[in-house]
C-alpha cells in the first residue's frame, strides 16, 4: 500500500510528529485515526524490546494465580495471597468487594475522556493543566525515550475530594472517585493479609502511610496500531507502588515475566476481576520477600484497549526501607533507607528498563 501524506510527513519530520501528538494534544489516538499505513519511525522499538522479535518465549498454558476473595479471612485465602506475592508478584482476584457496575462505569468514563476533542484533552497536559496532580500525556517519558510507546494516558494523583472536584475532568471525575472509594476495602484486606505474612500484626499509622499514604489512578488508552509487532504499548518495567490494582478490559495484552528467565505469561481478562501486583515499594519494605515483577503491554493491530490502574503508594515524603519486623530475627537488610520521592523521580527520568529502578535502593 502506498504511504499517505501523513506517513511521509511523520517519518521525515520528527518535530511535526511531536507537534501533532504532544503539543496539539492528539496523542497516538490521533495518529491511529489518521489511517497510517506504517508505524512512524519514532515508535519502532529496538529488536530486543519487541515481544515477537527477540528471544522471548511466551508460555500459553501457564497462568498467574486467580484468588477468590469471598472469604478473605480464611487462612487458605491468606496463604494463597502471600504465596502469589512471593512467587509471582502478580495475581488476579475475583469476588472482591468492588461492584461490577463501578468497574463498568469507570471503563465507560475512560472511553469518554479519550473521545474528547484534542483541544479539550490538551487542557490537562503538563503545559496547560491547572493542577500538577492532573496530567494528560502520551508514551512514558518522551524526552528520555529513544523509541516511543504506543499509549496515551490521563494521570490523576488524589489529594482530596475538593481538589478532584476542582481540577479533574468532569467526564470521568465521579466514576474514578467511586472506583477508588470502592477499592479501598479490598486494598486494606490485601495489606492486612500481606503484613500478617511479614509478622506485622498491627498496621499503625506509620506503616499505613508507607503502604497506602498516597494514591494515583491512571486511565490508559492503547489505540489500534499499524505494525503492532514493531512497537510496544508499555515497555518492560516494574511499578514503583506498594500495590497496583488494575482493571483491564476484555481485549488482553498484558504480559508478566515468569519465574523461568525470559519467559512471559499472558494475563487473560476475566470479567469482573482485578489484577493485583506487588510494586517496588512493597518489595523494599518486605526486604525482597514479596516480588515486584517486570511486565509489559503489547500493541494491538485490530482493537482499541483501555486499562485503569490504581497505584497505592507511600507518601512522597516517606522514607522507605525494610520494615523492622522483617529484620527482627536477624535477617540482613538488602535495601537501604531511601526517600520515596527520590525513588519515583529516578523512575521517571529514564525510559522503561525492566527491573533496574530497584537497584537505586540496593545496599
UniProtKB/TrEMBL annotation:
- Keywords linked to the UniProt accession: Dioxygenase, Iron, Metal-binding, Oxidoreductase
As cofactor, the record names: L-ascorbate
Q: Name one Pfam family in it.
A: 2OG-FeII_Oxy
The record's Gene3D superfamilies line, in alphabetical order, gives: B-lactam Antibiotic, Isopenicillin N Synthase, Chain (2.60.120.330)
GO molecular function term, any single one: metal ion binding
InterPro entries, alphabetically?
Answer: DIOX_N, IPNS-like_FE2OG_OXY, IPNS-like_sf, Oxoglu/Fe-dep_dioxygenase_dom, Plant_2OG-oxidoreductases
GO BP, sorted A to Z: coumarin biosynthetic process
Fe2OG dioxygenase domain mapped to chain residues = 208-314
Query: Belongs to which family?
Result: Belongs to the iron/ascorbate-dependent oxidoreductase family.
Name by which UniProt lists this protein: Feruloyl CoA ortho-hydroxylase 2
UniProt source species: Theobroma cacao (Cacao)
Source organism phylogeny: Eukaryota, Viridiplantae, Streptophyta, Embryophyta, Tracheophyta
Amino acid at each position: 500500500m502506498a504511504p499517505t501524506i501523513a506517513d511521509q510527513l511523520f517519518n521525515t519530520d520528527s518535530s511535526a510528529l511531536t507537534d501533532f501528538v504532544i503539543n496539539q494534544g492528539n496523542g497516538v489516538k490521533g495518529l491511529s485515526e489518521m489511517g497510517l499505513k506504517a508505524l512512524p519511525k519514532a515508535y519502532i522499538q529496538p529488536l530486543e524490546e519487541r515481544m515477537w522479535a527477540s528471544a522471548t518465549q511466551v508460555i500459553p498454558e501457564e497462568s498467574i494465580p486467580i484468588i477468590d476473595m469471598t472469604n478473605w479471612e480464611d487462612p487458605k485465602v491468606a496463604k494463597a495471597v502471600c504465596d502469589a506475592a512471593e512467587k509471582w508478584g502478580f495475581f488476579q482476584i475475583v469476588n472482591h468487594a468492588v461492584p461490577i457496575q463501578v468497574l463498568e462505569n469507570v471503563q465507560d468514563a475512560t472511553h469518554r475522556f479519550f473521545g474528547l476533542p484534542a483541544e479539550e484533552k490538551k487542557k490537562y497536559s503538563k503545559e496547560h493543566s491547572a493542577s500538577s496532580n492532573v496530567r494528560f500525556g502520551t508514551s512514558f517519558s518522551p524526552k528520555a525515550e529513544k523509541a516511543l510507546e504506543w499509549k496515551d494516558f490521563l494521570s490523576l494523583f488524589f489529594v482530596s475530594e475538593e481538589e478532584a472536584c476542582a481540577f479533574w475532568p468532569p467526564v470521568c471525575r465521579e466514576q474514578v472517585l467511586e472506583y477508588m472509594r470502592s477499592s479501598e476495602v479490598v486494598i486494606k484486606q490485601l495489606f492486612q493479609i500481606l503484613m500478617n505474612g511479614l509478622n506485622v500484626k498491627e498496621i499503625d499509622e506509620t506503616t499505613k502511610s508507607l503502604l497506602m499514604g498516597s494514591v494515583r489512578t491512571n486511565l490508559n488508552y492503547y489505540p489500534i496500531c499499524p505494525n503492532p509487532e514493531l512497537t510496544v504499548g508499555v515497555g518492560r518495567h516494574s511499578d514503583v507502588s506498594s500495590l497496583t490494582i488494575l482493571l483491564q478490559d476484555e481485549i488482553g495484552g498484558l504480559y508478566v515475566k515468569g519465574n523461568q528467565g525470559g519467559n512471559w505469561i499472558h494475563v487473560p481478562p476475566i470479567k469482573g476481576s482485578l489484577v493485583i501486583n506487588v510494586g517496588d515499594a512493597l518489595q523494599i519494605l518486605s526486604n525482597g520477600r514479596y516480588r515486584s515483577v517486570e511486565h509489559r503491554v503489547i500493541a494491538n493491530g485490530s482493537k482499541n484497549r483501555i486499562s485503569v490502574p490504581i497505584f497505592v503508594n507511600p507518601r512522597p515524603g516517606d522514607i522507605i526501607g525494610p520494615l523492622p519486623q522483617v529484620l527482627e530475627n536477624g535477617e540482613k537488610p538488602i535495601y537501604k533507607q531511601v526517600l520515596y520521592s527520590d525513588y519515583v523521580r529516578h523512575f521517571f527520568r529514564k525510559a522503561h528498563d525492566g527491573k533496574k529502578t530497584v537497584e537505586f535502593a540496593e545496599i
